[in-house]
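Quick review question:
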């Protein structure tokens, strides 16, 4: 009689346990996959920034192929507007007296005159690779329309002519976050004319509702 009363209890217990264990397993899997993806995005930003700072021209097909191969794990494509990832490469320059002087925008006493972007960060190049709808740069972007439009080289993304860096307000970059070269409001430890190379990488996260909603993974490096 005792055996008849307890028969089937293990099946019920197993079923109840699965109601907890299956969601737990799925959630752990989704979180784990997104952690791996996040690490891949960090590595992509680091590799892209290192190569960019070393002078690699990603407007060249061969170099572009190298970058997209590095980003294949996060779904990066070399075709504009395609794929699940984007890399935004920016080179920025701080406009000080030396830069103004280099463009001849100083008065007789060596003070900036007509140097619109004096004491501001400006773009010297902007190159976007992959799907630009994934994420926009945290540095902003050179204005390419309107009265203060900046002229960029269609192939390399370089500001051309370079004098716009000092005179065109549409070329100003905005650091959304900590600027490591400003201390108490003043520029610190950066030689005049030094260009900073910034690589930003972003990719769509793994999707498994309701555990993972495909949030954007983002990372940047600065050299």
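Suggested answer, residue by residue:
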């Amino acid at each position: 009689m005792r055996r008849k009363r307890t028969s089937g209890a293990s099946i019920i217990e197993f079923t109840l346990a699965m109601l907890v264990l299956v969601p737990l397993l799925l959630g752990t899997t989704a979180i784990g996959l997104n952690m791996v993806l996040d690490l891949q995005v960090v590595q992509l930003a680091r590799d892209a920034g290192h190569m960019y700072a070393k002078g690699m021209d990603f407007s060249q097909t061969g170099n572009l192929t190298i970058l997209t191969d590095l980003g294949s794990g996060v779904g990066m494509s070399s075709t504009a507007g395609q794929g699940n990832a984007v890399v935004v490469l920016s080179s920025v320059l701080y406009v000080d007296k030396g830069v103004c002087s280099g463009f001849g925008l100083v008065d007789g006493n060596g003070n900036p005159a007509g140097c619109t972007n004096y004491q501001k960060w400006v773009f010297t190049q902007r190159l976007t690779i992959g799907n630009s709808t994934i994420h926009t740069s945290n540095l902003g972007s050179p204005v390419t329309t309107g009265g203060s439009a900046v002229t960029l080289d269609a192939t390399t993304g370089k500001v051309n002519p370079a004098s716009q860096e000092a005179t065109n307000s549409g070329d100003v970059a905005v650091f959304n976050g900590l600027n490591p070269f400003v201390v108490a409001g003043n520029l610190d430890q950066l030689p005049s004319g030094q260009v900073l190379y910034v690589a930003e990488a972003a990719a769509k996260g793994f999707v498994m509702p309701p555990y993972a909603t495909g949030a954007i993974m983002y990372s940047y490096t600065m050299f």
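Why it works: The radius of gyration is 25 Å. Strands lie at 85-94, 121-130, 182-183, 186-187, 195-204, 207-208, 212-213, 216-222.
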